[in-house]
Amino acid sequence: MFMDILFIPIIIVGVILLLILGILLMWKRVPQDKAVVITGLKKRVISGGGGLVVPLLERSDIISLENMKIEVRTDSALTEQGVDIRADGVAVLKVKSDMESILSAVEQFNMGTEKATIEFIKDTAKDVLEGKLREIISKMSVEEIYRDREKFASQVQEVAALDLAEMGLEIKAFTIRDINDDNGYLIALGKSRIAEVKRDAQIAEAEASKETKVKTAEANRQGEQARLISETQIAEASKEKELKVQSYRKDQETEKAKADLAYEIEASKVQQEVEKEKMQVQIVRKQKEIELAEQEALRREKELEATIKKQSDAEKYSAIKKAEVDKYRELQDAEVSAEAIRLKGKATAEARREEGMAEVEIIRERGKAEAEAMMKKAEAFKQYNDAAITQMIIEKLPEIAKAVADPLSKTEKIVIVDSGSGAGKGAAKVSGYVTDIIASLPETVNALTGVDLKQILKGKDLGALVPNDKTGDEA
């Protein structure tokens, strides 16, 4: 009994250990890059985890979820133009991670082992890609394939992806590695392209050189323009400075001229005042001279009255002297008036002042000369005797006769109307007319001056020198 009780715990422990060992043996652990498809009791997929697989009742198939690299190559693929080319590409694909795609891939590609399954997937995918590659090549030209590989690869990837997706596969990448042909078509196309590229390069280089030259010329032009603008601005500044200097000098000269003119005007005013004072002095002096002349005339008149024997001679001489004094006074008054006019003209206009002064000086000198001449004549007349007076009259007779006969000398034509009753005949009377006129001169002189030439020449009447009353009154 005791032994039965002792074996019960051992049995229980053994069963538990067997259960644990069984669970461990049935537990299936799957890494992240793998997937296990369990079929039997219940179809399920385990990836990146673990699960129980009942032996004999369930089956597990493993498939890789890693990327698979496939090299694709086409030989003698005809393009749209019928050109035979070769295209080499590389595709990267994998089994999609969703449960439906994994089940589809296992269903189509399971070879019992993981490695065999992978190889089968690669072969199948390669065949699909090469077929699709040929399909796309037949729809494109060599130039399009050669020049736009990315477009070519993307079209292959698009059409192949649909078929591969039904197999639970997806294309991660597809690249065209090489395109070639056995006929030299691509080489010729390359040469043309090379030539085109070289041409474009040369054109680009020429354009660049041209642009460089244009920009250089433009830079030079702008530099020259900037230099000219700078020089122009400098010239304008210099010109403006010169104009300001000239304007400043002009203002200075104008102000100086105004100052000089003001000084000259002031000096002229002062000079006019001085001249006015001088003229006042001269006027006073002239007045004094006139007074002295009057006094001298009175003195001489008194002296003449004392020395002349006859009253008539004294009156005659007095009248003559008075006339001389009056004439002298008039001359002096005229001179004073002329001086006053000259002073007034000088105050109003400097130019007319000079002219007025000249005229006044001429009048004054002429008056003085005439006055002095008359005074000298008067002095001389005082000393003259009858013989001297007679001599003077006789000396003037030829001039009188010449004055009488002079009109006849200027006569171009004389018409004589004669009845023949006279003593002379025709033209002979013309000379008689002249003789008669000259013979009447003594009477004419006596009538005009009161001097009887006949008596003087006879020497009988010395009193004939004294003018008659009528003549004296007229004088």
CATH class of the domain at 66-183: Alpha Beta
- CATH topology category name of the domain at 66-183: Tetrahydropterin Synthase, Chain A
Q: Give me the CATH superfamily of the domain at 66-183.
A: Band 7 domain
Order of helices and strands: HEEEEEEEHHHHEHHHHHHHH
Instruction: Indicate the radius of gyration in whole angstroms.
Output: 82 Å
Question: Do you know the CATH architecture of the domain at 66-183?
Answer: 2-Layer Sandwich
| Cross-sheet strand order for the largest sheet | 3-2-5
Number of strands: 8
Q: How much of the polypeptide forms β-strand, as a percent range? A: 5-15%
User: Strand pairing plus helix content: what structural class?
Assistant: alpha+beta
Largest sheet: 3 strands, antiparallel
The share of residues in helices is over 70%
| Shape by Cα distribution | rod-shaped
Low-confidence segments:
460-475
Mean pLDDT: 75
Total count of helical runs of at least 4 residues: 13
- Termini separation comes to 223 Å
Give an account of the 3D structure.
This is Band 7 protein. Keywords: Coiled coil, Membrane, Transmembrane, Transmembrane helix. One of its GO terms (biological process) is protein localization to plasma membrane. This protein has helices at residues 2-26, 99-109, 114-138, 142-147, 149-166, 185-307, 311-348, 350-383, 386-409, 428-439, 441-449, 453-458, 469-474; strands at residues 27-30, 34-39, 44-46, 49-52, 59-64, 68-78, 84-95, 169-180. The protein is an alpha+beta fold and 475 residues long. Among the domains are: 24-58, no CATH class; 66-183, Band 7 domain (Tetrahydropterin Synthase, Chain A, 2-Layer Sandwich); 387-408 and 428-475, no CATH class. It is rod-shaped and about 235 Å long. The chain starts with a helix and ends with a helix.
